[in-house]
Each structure stands twice: as structure tokens, then as C-alpha cells.
Design a protein that fits this description.
By secondary structure, the protein is mostly helical. 62% of the residues lie in helices and 5% in strands. Strand 3 (621-628) and strand 4 form a beta hairpin. It is elongated, with a radius of gyration of 30 Å. This is Tetratricopeptide repeat protein.
Length: 722
């Protein structure tokens, strides 16, 4: 049976009936009242000797083998008692097998048995309970799972109304609420998470660690601290308590105290992946980039597997910011392997985030079409926000900003191709119109999500508390706000952000964004002053891409101020570190063209001059087109200091379109990253093994990712009988 199939004869009619009843209830009493969904627990508090259904201590690390084994022996004993002595003692064998299959994560069998049980009795408590497990953890359908588990809870509540002391009803109520809590947590329904935990506490035991994170997400920080104080230091869930304290500091935008808390918890629990992951994020928000990289690597090497995200994704983003593109590719390949080892239902926690990371790396490699594909996938299927401190609005803003960036880059590339005749004009114009429409739609969605506080947060460098590298907003994405937000609004947001920031390292980032605003307003003297000041203080290695944008702005301002040597000097930095900045900032590059007089050379020169990315000026970068030995054509580009920026060598051909193809190849080579290549690579020709290797890596990344995301449905091979 297809495990994603919903049993029509049992489940669909019940879902329709539930929907009708819910609409009637909403009309009569309203849907917003928490009491309608979570009435007070109908049971009395459990007595001594009640089974520990919800663990009251955290799981030890597997490195502590005796403690780890003892913990799981106790957990197994709870399941065995439920099956043989309490809630399923008198149940038919099929229901016992169903309970076992659900908790053993044998979901194919659990789905088959649940269908059979619910076919006979649509209100079977164990059938609904197990079906919720299948729908949530195997089929990743948490909405259906929530419906199933709430139907099961209704059965348990009915038992409580008949007999508040019924031990079987009490036990089922706790089993069900524990599952419902996890489903709600995954769905990021914080109010209901708290309500479910409170019902558990009414009859079972205090579980403050099941409430504090949701209180943090609702920004009810005082209540969260009160819950943390109930269990911190008791040796039960100290890891969760320390992490929650750090998250509160982060949400309050207290950079330094958040980092201090993260360091302290990692010293206490050095082998915990989630804590090292959060230390990496806290380090980035304090511009401690080397520490962040080490923390992400420590998270990757951690022995526990409790995290539902992979540290390789933010590590890849960090490496992209530093211009370390091949290493970012390697990190993403490791992320694919890492994600493949997790439970399937957790993949949706960071699937979109991973797609955005891949899109950013592909953009760095000048692979606009592939980057756009992954960015669209991310926005079409956003991540669940339940397991992170980011809310859904922040995720939508992050997704939209990255998508808009890549859409704009693709549009600029297409305009260049159209200007040099490298693509058929009819199809290209239609595609250009489509991209322009998509850009407008993305911008409308993006700006509709913004409120003042989030606009301020967007201009905070490496923002603590939400929108940042965790959601794939890299430092240089701030320059895209020059197109997305009115410049006056952007200046107001910057002023508000500056008032709340104390660290000295923040200032050059804010100067850089202000330089972009002044450039757009043609206040070139101030733009150049701000950009130059920012470049003097920005980290030279940790922010190579960001510095590439600032250098492009400084060059544009200097050129307008009739300072060509300074302009070319700044532009040379941008061309070396991140030439994509020219497309994303709408900057044209001045060139002076020379050739040796042949008709072919003149045609190539004329086509280069027609490019929308360049314009002719005798003070610009020199481009020489000349014949080379054995019927080849050589195109060289120099900076004003006569250092070679790039060269391509192509065999001369009489085929139609040779000129346009050659000039398009020049554009591709111009926008390939050069910063991580050696001097030998820089002097090599475009058909060199280096360029071929870069292309293969991008192709393999796409292939590997698709294979990882589409696991085979083939059955396991049968072993030969002995």
C-alpha cells in the first residue's frame, strides 16, 4: 500500500464531518477561545506509581553508555507496561501490534494495521493515536496528524468525564497529549503548545521545559524565565534551560550576553550539537567569525543526534560571505549527507534553508538559472519554524529577499545576453517580461510582510534575534534593500538601528549601507567618503563579498567625481572578490577596446561595446582583442595598473553566431569567482581544468542534492537463505 494514501472509507468522511462540526462550533462560540480546544483536564491528578510516560529527565549522551542504557531500559519498561499491563492489557492482538509498530517507527506496518483497525472502528483510540504517529513522522502531514490525535483526545476526555479517577483514561490522556504537544511544536503553534503542556501538568507532573521555548517565541520573556527557574540546576533538563537562557538574550538583541551564555553552555555540554550550533550563530552576531566556524564544525562532530537542522548549512553561508566558494560547496555536500541521516519528518525543518544556501553558492558561481530553481523551491515550500527561534513572518521575509536577489541577477544576465545578441530576441524579451513580473510580485510580497521593527532588524549587521545567517540572509543581502525599500525609509531604519547598537564593529556596516543610499541619491562625495571609511574597518577576509559591494559603490562614486584611477582601483577589488555586485547594484564598467584590424576582431569589439554591462571610455579598463597562434582568438582584460584581470582563448570559427557566443563566453568568465584561485589559475585559459572542475562541481552539487532529496522507493534486497 502507498504509505501516503489516505483511507477514503474511514478517514476522509470523518475529516469532512469534523470540519462541518468545527465550522458550526466556530459560528456559535468563536474559534479563538483556547477553552474550546483545550478544556480543563477531566481527570484527577495521578497517584504514586503512575508510569513515567513523559520522561522527567533528559536523555544522556550515548558516550555515557551506562546512563544511556539505563535511560532507555526505563523507557522500554514504560512501553512494555502499557502494552501488557495497563492501556492495552485487554486489547486485541492487532491493536498491540499497532502500538508496537508506531513506537518502533515501523510506519509501513503501522499504516497498514491502523487502516484495518479504523476500518472496523473509526473511533478506535489506539487506531487514531497510531495514525497520528504515521501521518506526522512518516508522511510529514502534521495537519492530518493533529486531526487524528485530537479525535483520540476526545475519546480519552470522554473516559475522564465518566470516571475522573480512571487510570486507563489517565494514561491514555498523557500518551495522547505528549504526541499532540510534539505535533503542535512542529507546526509552530505556540499558544496551543503551552495549553497542551498545562493540561499535562494538571494531572501528571510539572513540565516547564515543555513551555519555555514557546513562551520565548511569543516574546513572553518574563514568563519564560519563570518556567526556566523551575527546573534549571536540578540536573534534569539543564541543557534545555541553558539553551533557553541564551535564546532569550538573543531575542532581546543582546549580542554580548547571548554569546557569553552560549559559550557557558558549550563549556558545560561540549558534545551537544544544538548548543554548538547556537554558539556558532551567537558568534556570528558578534562578528566572531573564526569562533563561529569552529562551533559549526564542533556541532557537526558532536556525538548526539538530537538536532533537527544541520550545522553545515550556516557554515556554507559563512564561507560564502568570506568568498570561500569551493569550501562552501563541500559544506553543502556534507549537509546533504548529514540531512540524509536524520528522521524523515525533520527534513522539512530546514529544507528551504538548505535550498537557499545552495542558491547562494550557485549565484557565487554565476549559475543564475540553477540558483533561481533552488530559490523558488524554497519559497514554494517554506520551512516549519517550530524548532527554531525564528517565526514564520521572518522566514517569509528571508525567503523573499534571497529569491528577489537571484531574480534580479537573472534579469541582469538576460539583459546582457539580449544586448549582445547571444539569445533570440523574441524569446528573450518574453522571458525578460516574465522575470520583471516575478520581481514585482516578489517585491510586493516582501514589502507586505515588513513592519517597522523588522525593517530596523534587516539593516542590523548580522542581526541578533532572528533574520540573519540562520535564515540565509547574508551580510551583503542588505544592499538589496536599496531597491526594495524607499531610501528615506531605509535611512530612518538605519538611524533607529544605530541607536540600539553599541559594538564598534557595527559602524562600518552601517556606513556601507549609507554609502549605497548616497550613491543612489547621487551624493557621490558623501558616498565615496562613507564607502572608503567602511573599507578601512571592515574585516578584510571575513567579509570579502560584502567588501566587494562596498568597493563597487566606491568605484561608482569616484567615477562620477571624475576620479578614474581611484574608481578603477575600487572596481578592481570588486571584480576580483565578487563581480556579481555589478549586476546586483546596476553598475556599468568603463572599458577601452583595441584590436589589430581584422573584420572578425572589429565585430567582436563592436559586440563588446554593445553590452549593457560595459560602456566605452578612454579611461576605462583595457580590453584587447587579437589573433593568437593556430587560428585562435584571444581576448584579454586589464586593470589600469596593467595587471591582467582575465583572458579567454577560443578557436576561430566561421559558423554563424561565433561572435555572439565568444562575447557571451567573455561575460561568463568575467562573472566567475576568481578570489579563491591561484595566480596560475588566473593566467590560465577558460577551457582549463580549473574552469572545467568548477563546472563539474556545480553539476554534481545539483545531481547529489536531487538524489539525496528523492530517496529510492525500491525494496531492500532479500538476503540469501542460509
Amino acid at each position: 500500500m502507498n504509505c501516503t494514501h489516505k483511507t477514503i472509507t474511514t478517514f476522509a468522511p470523518r475529516l469532512i464531518l469534523d470540519g462541518v462540526l468545527l465550522l458550526i462550533a466556530c459560528f456559535v462560540v468563536g474559534c479563538d477561545s483556547e477553552i474550546d480546544i483545550y478544556p480543563p483536564a477531566p481527570f484527577e491528578h495521578v497517584g504514586e506509581g503512575f508510569p513515567e510516560i513523559i520522561a522527567l529527565t533528559s536523555e544522556p549522551l550515548v558516550d555515557d553508555q551506562p546512563a544511556f542504557d539505563e535511560y532507555w531500559e526505563r523507557r522500554s519498561a514504560v512501553f512494555e507496561k502499557a502494552r501488557n499491563e495497563t492501556i492495552l492489557a485487554e486489547a486485541p492482538e492487532i491493536e498491540k501490534d499497532l502500538f508496537d509498530a508506531a513506537h518502533d517507527e515501523n510506519f509501513a506496518l503501522a499504516r497498514k494495521l491502523a487502516d484495518q483497525v479504523l476500518q472496523e472502528n473509526p473511533d478506535s483510540l489506539v487506531g487514531l493515536y497510531a495514525m497520528a504517529h504515521v501521518e506526522a513522522y512518516a508522511e510529514n502531514d502534521f495537519a492530518y496528524a493533529l486531526n487524528s490525535i485530537r479525535r483520540a483526545r476526545a475519546q480519552a476526555e470522554a473516559m475522564g468525564r465518566r470516571n475522573p479517577r480512571d487510570p486507563i483514561g489517565q494514561e491514555w490522556y498523557i500518551w495522547i497529549l505528549a504526541t499532540e504537544w510534539h505535533i503542535l511544536f512542529s507546526l509552530d503553534r505556540s499558544e496551543e503548545v503551552i495549553a497542551a503542556a498545562e493540561r499535562i501538568e494538571q494531572i501528571y507532573a510539572p513540565v516547564p521545559w515543555m513551555k519555555d521555548f514557546s513562551l520565548i517565541k511569543l516574546e513572553r520573556f518574563d514568563e519564560a524565565r519563570a518556567e526556566i527557574a523551575k527546573y534549571r540546576g536540578l540536573g534534569t533538563f539543564d541543557l534545555d534551560a541553558d539553551n533557553s537562557v541564551m535564546v532569550i538574550e538573543d531575542k532581546l538583541k543582546r549580542r554580548e550576553s547571548s554569546l557569553e551564555a552560549a559559550r557557558a553552555m558549550c563549556q558545560r555540554f561540549p558534545e551537544r550539537r544544538a548548543l554548538q550550533y547556537n554558539l556558532g550563530l551567537a558568534a556570528i552576531s558578534n562578528a566572531s567569525f573564526a569562533e563561529a566556524e569552529q562551533a559549526f564544525l564542533a556541532a557537526a562532530a558532536a556525538t548526539d543526534d538530537s538536532a533537527s537542522t544541520t550545522p553545515y548549512v550556516p557554515l556554507a553561508a559563512l564561507l560564502v560571505q568570506q568568498g570561500r566558494f569551493p569550501e562552501a560547496l563541500d559544506a553543502l555536500k556534507q549537509a546533504q549527507i548529514d540531512r540524509g541521516q536524520r528522521e524523515p519528518y525533520t527534513l522539512h525543518n530546514d529544507e528551504a534553508n538548505t535550498n537557499l544556501a545552495i542558491a547562494s553558492v550557485l549565484l557565487a558561481y554565476n549559475e543564475a538559472d540553477l540558483a533561481l530553481r533552488f530559490a523558488r523551491r524554497a519559497t514554494e515550500s517554506p520551512d516549519r519554524a517550530g524548532s527554531t527561534s525564528i517565526n514564520e513572518r521572518e522566514l517569509r521575509i528571508s525567503d523573499g529577499l534571497v529569491l528577489w536577489t537571484i531574480q534580479k541577477y537573472a534579469r541582469e544576465e538576460l539583459q546582457e545576453q539580449l544586448s549582445i545578441g547571444a539569445v533570440p530576441s523574441g524569446a528573450a524579451l518574453a522571458q525578460l517580461a516574465s522575470l520583471q513580473s516575478a520581481l514585482w510580485q516578489t517585491k510586493q510580497k516582501f514589502t507586505s510582510e515588513l513592519i517597522h521593527s523588522l525593517t530596523v532588524d534587516l539593516v542590523r549587521p548580522h542581526r541578533a534575534g532572528g533574520i540573519g545567517i540562520e535564515s540565509q540572509i547574508l551580510s551583503w543581502h542588505q544592499f538589496m534593500l536599496l531597491d526594495l525599500i524607499p531610501l528615506g525609509v531605509l535611512e530612518v531604519a538605519l538611524s533607529a538601528a544605530e541607536k540600539g547598537e553599541k559594538p564598534d564593529w557595527v559602524s562600518p556596516y552601517q556606513q556601507a549601507i549609507r554609502s549605497g543610499i548616497r550613491m543612489r541619491k547621487h551624493d557621490d562625495a558623501e558616498a565615496l567618503r562613507l564607502a572608503t571609511a567602511a573599507l578601512e574597518k571592515l574585516p578584510p577576509r571575513a567579509e570579502k563579498v560584502f567588501r566587494g559591494f562596498v568597493a563597487a559603490i566606491a568605484g561608482q562614486a569616484a567615477w562620477r567625481l571624475d576620479q578614474p584611477d581611484e574608481a578603477i582601483g575600487h572596481w578592481s577589488t570588486a571584480m576580483r572578490d565578487f563581480p556579481q555586485a555589478f549586476r546586483l547594484l546596476d553598475i556599468q564598467i568603463p572599458i577601452r577596446l583595441s584590436h589589430q584590424g581584422s573584420d572578425l576582431e572589429q565585430k567582436v569589439v563592436a559586440t563588446l561595446a554593445s553590452s549593457s554591462r560595459f560602456f566605452e571610455d578612454p579611461r576605462g579598463c583595457e580590453i584587447i582583442v587579437r589573433p593568437f597562434q593556430d587560428q585562435q582568438l584571444l581576448i584579454e582584460m586589464f586593470r589600469n595598473d596593467r595587471s591582467r584581470h582575465l583572458e579567454i582563448l577560443v578557436p576561430i570559427s566561421s559558423e554563424e553566431g561565433f561572435v555572439e557566443t565568444t562575447v557571451e563566453l567573455f561575460h561568463q568568465r568575467f562573472f566567475q569567482p576568481l578570489v579563491e584561485l591561484t595566480q596560475a589559475d588566473l593566467g590560465s585559459l577558460d577551457g582549463s581544468p580549473v574552469a572545467a572542475r568548477m563546472r563539474r562541481e556545480v553539476d554534481q552539487l545539483l545531481s547529489d542534492f536531487i538524489q539525496t532529496e528523492q530517496p529510492s522507493s525500491d525494496p531492500e534486497p532479500q538476503s540469501d537463505p542460509m
